[in-house]
Amino acid sequence: MKKNLKADLMLVIVTLGWGISYYLMDIALSDVDAFTLNAYRFLGAFFVAGLITFNKIKSVNRETLKYSIFVGVALFFVYTGATFGVKYTTLSNSGFLCALAVMFVPIFEFLFFRKKPERKIVFAVTVSLIGIMLLTLEDDFSINIANLKGDMLCIMCAVAYAIDLIITDRAVAKPEVNAYQLGVFQLGVTGTLMLIMAVIFEKPHLPETAEVWQSIIFLSIFCTGIAFIVQAVAQQYTTASHVGIIFTLEPVFAGIVAFFLAGEVLTVKAYIGAALMIGALFITEIDFSGIKKLKGSDK
User: Fold this and answer.
1) How far is CA 124 from CA 49, 207, 252, in A?
2) Of 35, 88, 130, 138, which has the maximum CB count within 10 A?
3) What is the pTM of this model?
């Protein structure tokens, strides 16, 4: 139980980093294109992690590399969908649709592995979805149908991230897969794919200002390298559905960062949504079976 709580706290910190990343991405994209930015993020994180912990990754086995490729490809689609989705739809649409991974995880686990979710997970997912709607959609809860291209890309992001969480969950459960090595090598796979796309479709260049350099370095080391390695390690002690619920806090943290750094103020509806999402996280941490046993012993 202590390991589960520790893993969840680590994932909350990761989610905080991703909340900050929206602000930094906005700065970086003013100078470099999307594939180029993601190539810098993932390859930079891979090389830094590789240099610092070379002794821990040099003896990687085939099974770990295989799953690193699977997860890396999934992450490529996650970040392609998220980055370009924002370009072709509204921020409210993208925030809601990308966060739908929380819904797809238990659905895919049931469809492909016949894994029935716990009742508290179903309840927490429902509360999270309501919270996401309140936080990200317009006051009349409308989604702009005119931005279908961007919406579909954001849905692709959510589906790909659900697949990423499930693959990671399955991989780290295998004794022959090293979770830390998986976390490092997935970065290299994603970064390589992003670089190939950048060379084909963009004109990669080095950042031209110190502000953009600082944003990319922070994104690379903290929001990418440390974040995805921590996610892979932490998933050994929790479930994919649980992780999906924790990651719904990303738009909450993004809103907090936007408030303090960009001066954006949320509506009352959005604050209620954020509170519901935090409440959903606490629901997943409660051991209801333990409470029932305790009540039974009192009688």
Assistant:
1) 35, 42, 16
2) 35
3) 0.80
